[in-house]
């Protein structure tokens, strides 16, 4: 007969080797004979926690604490609550733990729990206390940088990310977020350098290697070499808005090269072909044998290789750098826009997989729809287009989004507009690139590209910025929009926007 101590050792070894089912069965056998064995109850709870069976995990660890309130068991329960998102319960436990043991781990986990309930001040205070215990606490600096960005304080974020990288110099995540903090302060010299760490750049190169394996192995990434007699292949990464914003550099690229080949997202190809500046625009993947180039580069790396710093980034074009197809302008004019009203294009949602704070409430537009002498046009496509159902039958808003198959169509429609009102999405970048008057509506914590000074838009002369005063409050944003819109309708003077 196996002794209980031998059975425990065997169960513990099974647990450590990842054979969790066998370990669980042995723990349960032990507890049949020793129902007051707190250590086994705790280990069984940890095992359940490892397989995400949180109800069983909590019951077992609580039983262990009831039998023997060891700090270690309480730490396990606190960690369970934190990972379940039950932050208030975690905070109560971690506050008691910190009184007994001011370890870095306990302070850090307490700070993370405060962060979980968005008590930013207590979170910051506790991260700093954790750093007093362990000045090399990389995770605390990383989270303090996040909180600084959440306070729209990119200078402090830079300091914290730099400290994090002193401790862990190979962390690509800190490198990437440091680049965004630098760029928000308009320090593009350092920002663009660190921006090269971005994953989407690496994935863009990998995607090209899968399609053009021989070419991408043979031809180097462009690092600033003379291109006068060379062909450069550049390709998209990230979202539509990023590519539209950086397309301002295309005239410079084509002036430097014998030839530029660009592969944008399919939805942008027609628009770029109509504004090619002499570049060849690929819409589909061409065979390797039909593609010839000397250097290649991901498109968002272009300003870094060009060596731009500060204000040099914001190359402006007097009449915009993207023009609409005249035939499409005429089509939308005759079919939808042949009226004397003040014509306003709107959009409320872009990519909903990240930065969800950017998404507008469709209902917030409703007071604007009631303004006299206006005609509103929805340019919403894809995700969010179902929200148009809330407008139908209530207001006379024209659904143009359902007619768009590419950004060339969108540009044709926008050229007929007096104004664009939208959240931080690709429509704003298209309007800005066309130099169409535009109001961009930003959440309280906003993207790096709008910089610290929101009194002007550095990237686009025709874009005016409106931002939430407090997180989640779009009501006041729309009140300010409505006030300014009324003035525009009265004057109908687009040139003084």
For the record, the CATH architecture of the largest domain stands as: 3-Layer(aba) Sandwich
- Low-confidence parts, pLDDT < 50 over ≥5 residues? none
- Count of discrete structural domains: 3
Strand order of the largest sheet: 7-6-5-8-9-10
Q: Please describe the biggest sheet, giving its number of strands, its sense, and whether it closes into a barrel.
A: 6 strands, parallel
Strand residue content: 5-15%
Structural class: alpha/beta
What global shape is seen? Answer: globular
Radius of gyration, whole Å: 29 Å
| CATH domain class of the largest domain | Alpha Beta
Number of strands: 10
C-alpha termini separation: 89 Å
Number of helices: 23
For CATH, the homologous superfamily of the largest domain is named as: Glycogen Phosphorylase B
Query: In percent, how helical is the residue content?
Result: 40-55%
CATH topology of the largest domain: Rossmann fold
* Overall pLDDT: 93
Structure in a nutshell:
By secondary structure, this protein is an alpha/beta fold. The protein is built from 23 helices and ten strands.
